[in-house]
Amino acid sequence: MRVFRSFLSLLFFVVFGIGGMCLSYLILPFVWKRSLALKMVRGMWWIILKGFCATRLIRIDRSAFQADIRGCVILANHPSLIDVVILTVLLPRTFSVAKAALRRHPLIGVIVRRVFLHDDARLMEEAPTLLAAGYNILVFPEGTRSPHPTTMHAWHRGGTQLALRTQSPIQPIALHYDYRLLAKGQSLFDMGKKCVTIRLVSLPQMAALEERPQTYHALAVQWTRQMTSDVQALLASM
Questions:
Q1: Closest listed residue to residue 170, CA positions, set 157, 178, 159
Q2: Fewer CB within a 10 Å sphere, N or C end of the chain?
Q3: Which of 118, 215, 206, 207 has the alpha carbon at shortest distance from 165?
Q4: Residue 200 pairs with which residues in a beta bridge?
Q5: CA atoms of 101 and 111, how far apart (whole Å)
Q6: Distances (CA, A) of 169 to 74, 80, 119, 140, 166
């Protein structure tokens, strides 16, 4: 069973790679609207995710997940390589923030440059317009993948700062895997012996500020610590 699941994983990553290259070099260069490019990438990822679920490589539990959100900064823990695929597919009108190094990736670099938001000064220039138009912005505040499905790296406060400065609500999301899957340093083909359940939980939304504070630092630190504590406690209890 483990060998067969590894073979399925290899097959889907080959499809993912071919699809990514076709989008990157044959389609996206001729698509000028970022919103349309996002729909195309989301459509390809939907097909891949459906394949993962249909073959029982993974199962997604959305019983405690709220997908109908608009104009929010979404902060989530990051246990697996496919977190961004799952959340992009399940959350329509959501742009993700990517690290600068991914822009140079030979396989997904074009997708990152066209569809993802840049983790630099340009983010604050682009974010207010996107949020006001009802798009969400997804940030993984750990900055890298989590060390374990039930533990996290400390959250950076950049995502919280973004929400505070744009006066946008924050939607914290917890992702829990019942098997360590596609984690940092783990083989792409280690899919375990049985279907991996991924549970998504939407924590209470933090309302947008009605008035701008004199300083964002103290509030960003407080809110980030609170969200980190809440998500970590939830993961530990699952």
A1: 159
A2: N
A3: 215
A4: 175
A5: 13
A6: 9, 25, 19, 16, 9
Q: At what angle do helices 158-166 and 122-132 cross, to 10 degrees?
A: 50
One digit per residue, the tens of pLDDT, for the chain of length 238 reads 788 898 988 898 888 889 888 888 889 888 889 999 999 999 999 999 999 999 999 999 999 999 899 999 999 999 999 999 999 999 989 999 988 777 777 777 788 888 899 877 788 889 999 999 999 999 999 999 999 989 999 999 999 999 999 999 999 999 999 999 999 889 888 999 999 999 999 999 999 988 887 788 899 999 999 999 999 999 999 8
Q: Whose CA is closest to 48, among 76, 99, 8?
A: 8
On whether the CB atoms of residues 102 and 35 are closer than 8 A, the answer is: no
Tokens of 11: 């097959």
Distance between CA atoms of 86 and 38, rounded to whole angstroms? 14
